[in-house]
Amino acid sequence: MSDGSVQQQQSQPAVPLLEEQRVGEILAAVPERGQWRYRPRRVGMVWRSKTFRIAAVFTVLALCGLVILALVRAQTGTEGFLVGLGLAVLPVPLLMTAFRWLDRVEPGPWRNLVFAFAWGACAAALVAIIANSFATRWIATATADPASADTLGATVIAPVVEESAKAAAVLLIFLFRRRDFGGIVDGVVVAGFTATGFAFTENILYLGNAFGEDQQIGNSGLASVTAATFFVRGVMTPFAHPLFTVLTGLGFGFAALSACRHRIRRIALPLLGLVLAMGMHALWNGSGTFGPYGFYVVYGVFMVPVFGLITWLAIWSRQRELRTLATELSAYAAAGWLTPAEPLALSSMRARGLARDLARRQHAHAVYGAPGYGYAPAYGYAHGGNSRVVAQVRSHARAQAEARGKAAARAVAEYESFATSLAFLRRRAGRGAADPDFTARELELLHHLWQRRAVAAPALAYAAQATGRLRPRYITPGVPQQYQPYGGHNPYLPPAGQPYHQPHHGSRPHQRPW
Hints:
By secondary structure, the protein is mainly α. The chain has helices at 3-11, 23-27, 45-48, 50-88, 91-102, 110-143, 146-176, 184-217, 225-236, 240-257, 263-285, 294-334, 341-346, 349-368, 376-382, 387-430, 438-466. The longest helix is centred in the last third of the chain and has 44 residues, at 387-430. It is globular, with a radius of gyration of 32 Å.
């Protein structure tokens, strides 16, 4: 061993020997927490925070929005931007209301829809403007033919870029919010909100440019380019972009209905929907190259029929979800968790609304008609006819009745929501797509239903009868029909040869919802 290595070894500090008898004495020299020189590093813990992820996503979308607004304002000018903004916002509430109506059976979280709209209006629009401009300039430089470059960019580049950018929002929700993405209706709604946001930003650009053109040539009124552009984009074809992207959403919706073992189908269906969306978008953008009447031919022969077909499919899917409630919840009615009338009432939006209204009225009347409240005038006369006392008693009675009625209606609405989630949870299990925590989720939903049953069950039973959904064949006495299990553990299916047992949570709810 060389002298240098020996010297280096001798200069290194000695490692303290571990002696169990002296551990406390050795560690007693460690400084207090406030004087620590080394602290544990929380590697990756920041991104695991849900609040941080939400803030990061919406911060990125906000930055994209600021950039896209600056680009649009640079092209249209301030006045054109404001005019375009005012006109472009008009179709948005109508489209959002239509898509939200489709989603009433099992409404998705608003945060998903807000994300989808913001992605379309900010991120997808920014990607489209940058990519389309770059591709068109590159084609014009390569071919030395700007006119052909514009045509090629509109019919080939724009459909691919724009539909891919919009499909990214549907893909993200499909991957990271999988429990909120259960079928065709969810795919249509998410895709529709994304495309509505994209069309909103694009309409600002087109309408702002049209207004600038009118300012240059002096046009105004109904004969202006702005009015014509708004009529085409806001009146005739406000559904154009949503229609294209809904095809992608349908692909993801059918993929969500497929079992986990069908991996090829779950990948191929969204890709097929995306290709169809690109093709339809390309046909629409290229309709102007088919001659002077090409636009009207494509609009009347292709766009309107496809729009009608997609609308019918979306409404049929919505009705199918309602039928799913009656089918899946009948198993829990047979097991004693629900009354026979509840699956029928829960499968009708009219009956569900009627049940909420009935609960509100009945529980409000129970408070307002109680002694001391309903007899407020007599109470006032007993105290010398003091009108102030009478007014105070009546005001207090109305406030109490309104609060009790709202609480009852809220309990019924929550009951309907939990029952819907339970039905779709069971449907996924029946398709072989049950989650590992299926039993725990099922028990949790049954617990929530049982807590609200005392309020919701009578209201739903009355609503089923009032809407004509309760037939004598549903209430005939006897043993309920045996239902086929979907496989796996089912804690409510009794052993063979034994009747269905009653709920084992007790004869009364654990607590009332108010």
